[in-house]
Amino acid sequence: VFFGGSDPTKETEKFLIAIESSQIRDITYELVVGAANPRAKEIELLCKNAPSVRFHFQTNQMDKLCERADLALGTGGSANWERFCFGVPTIVIATATNQVETVSSLSEAGAIKFLGWHSDISPIDIWTAILDAVNNPSEMFDIAQCARQLITEATNYGAKFVADRMQAINRGN
Description:
Elements: H1 11-19, E1 29-33, H2 40-48, E2 53-57, H3 62-68, E3 72-75, H4 79-85, E4 90-94, H5 97-109, E5 113-117, H6 123-135, H7 137-157, H8 159-171
Parallel strand pairs: 1-2, 3-4, 4-5
């Protein structure tokens, strides 16, 4: 779970509310908070009351966390591409207007599960999305494969190819 360096829309707190009454005890959440998050100390304290959550502050271990992850929850920024490199199926909440077009296109392409604009998303929506992911592993596998394919195309054909492909998706081609 990573909502960017500062998480100005407080998605991390929504996530913690979403899981606080969870009856699923065999899920471990790795929660990453960036140094620019002004509520980092408060979030760390909340995590101490959530035994299934491991708190990470400004970690340099994102690659290891992504490598171990079965599912990611985060924003629609550049962290998407990091998650794609590891083939991690991702649930995305848009937290900035410059993310909406890209995450909408990625969702239409099948590379992410897009929940929507942050102010429209409640803790219940987050919990429902997590449960849906847990109960539909084949859908999450397909999302991960699609995301990994985008990275493979970028590696094999270059960034221009991927940008052209994303524009074609935006146009509905």
